[in-house]
């Protein structure tokens, strides 16, 4: 059964408009999987049909309706599915199409978005930018749980500054989600850790790197190597600056748990 995304803009919001469209779909034996408002004055639907001719007839008819303007009709993309599920589109950078923006109030949507990415098979490199305590690491872990994937910290400051230099047992499994803090890894002088990072980057699995701009400094990798860049802010106008982030990472080396040092294993 094929699936399509149909979106329209309401020109005249008269009573019974949605009922007319739903009735037309029913007569053509097209199922409505889900429906929601996706923007002010717009409505989106996920549709299913066994016969593609029914879909073509439907779009031909609704395109002539004066009360609506068809804005999208296509095989559903991830952003389409999430827009119907959550009621609005995830903002995307106009120039960098692989950059998606969220604010802290949208952590639920962010987790859902990343979980869908994590469910896909194959190699994927994801970067996430954001200031301290905005919810980056927590969102990655929550998305891993939603995707039923095991997460492995290669470097992190979530609880204690952690720098891994080995993997053991099933941690090498390609189905795992590898999480790395770009600032911690960049500042590490442990060659074993750097070798582990190189091994991880060569594995055909999903890697999530916090502070990707810092990670690519003094390394063989480029920001263009990332398949997705996620930006998470406390509010839409917040500037992501690395001076404060680096200062917080330096303080975490000595301040956490009374200065007992970092976890290095």
Structure description:
The chain is α/β, with parallel strands linked by helices. It is 34% helix and 26% strand. It contains nine helices and 13 strands. It has helices at 17-27, 52-62, 78-86, 107-119, 136-146, 182-187, 191-202, 212-215, 242-255, and strands at 2-10, 31-39, 42-49, 68-74, 99-103, 124-130, 151-153, 155-156, 162-163, 177-181, 206-210, 228-233, 263-264. The protein has a six-stranded parallel beta sheet with strand order 5-12-6-11-10-7. A hairpin with a 5-residue loop joins strand 8 (155-156) and strand 9. It is elongated, with a radius of gyration of 23 Å. The termini are far apart.
Summary of the model, kept short:
With 265 residues, the chain is of the alpha/beta class. The protein has 9 helices and 13 strands.
Would you spell out the secondary-structure blueprint of this structure?
Elements: E1 2-10, H1 17-27, E2 31-39, E3 42-49, H2 52-62, E4 68-74, H3 78-86, E5 99-103, H4 107-119, E6 124-130, H5 136-146, E7 151-153, E8 155-156, E9 162-163, E10 177-181, H6 182-187, H7 191-202, E11 206-210, H8 212-215, E12 228-233, H9 242-255, E13 263-264
Which descriptor suits the 3D outline? elongated
Give a count of the beta strands, DSSP E runs of length 2 or more: 13
> Low-confidence parts lasting 5 or more residues at pLDDT below 50?
256-261
Distance between the termini: 50 Å
Largest sheet: 6 strands, parallel
Strand sequence of the main sheet, in spatial order? 5-12-6-11-10-7
The helix/strand series, from N terminus to C terminus, equals: EHEEHEHEHEHEEEEHHEHEHE
Structural class: alpha/beta
Total of helices = 9
């Amino acid at each position: 059964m094929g699936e399509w995304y149909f979106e329209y803009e309401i020109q005249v919001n008269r009573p019974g408009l949605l009922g007319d469209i739903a009735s037309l779909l029913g007569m053509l034996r097209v199922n409505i999987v889900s429906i929601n408002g996706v923007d002010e004055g717009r409505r989106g639907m996920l549709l299913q049909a066994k016969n593609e001719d029914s879909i073509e007839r439907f779009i031909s008819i609704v395109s002539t309706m004066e009360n609506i303007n068809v804005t999208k009709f296509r095989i559903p993309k991830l952003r389409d599915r999430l827009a119907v599920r959550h009621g609005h589109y995830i903002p995307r950078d106009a120039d960098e199409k692989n950059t998606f923006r969220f604010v802290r109030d949208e952590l639920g949507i962010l987790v859902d978005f990343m979980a869908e990415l994590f469910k896909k098979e194959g190699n994927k490199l994801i970067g996430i930018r954001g200031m301290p305590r905005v919810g980056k690491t927590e969102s990655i872990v929550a998305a891993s749980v939603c995707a039923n994937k095991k997460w492995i910290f290669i470097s992190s400051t979530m609880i204690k500054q952690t720098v891994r230099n080995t993997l053991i047992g099933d941690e090498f499994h390609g189905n795992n989600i590898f999480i790395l803090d770009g600032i911690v890894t960049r500042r590490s002088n442990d060659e074993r850790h750097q070798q582990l990072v190189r091994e991880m980057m060569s594995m055909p699995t999903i890697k999530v790197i916090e502070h990707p701009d810092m990670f690519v400094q003094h390394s063989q990798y480029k920001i263009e190597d990332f398949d997705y860049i996620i930006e998470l802010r406390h509010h839409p106008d917040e500037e992501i600056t690395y001076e404060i982030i680096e200062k917080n990472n330096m303080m975490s080396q000595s301040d956490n748990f009374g200065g007992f040092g970092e976890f290095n294993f």
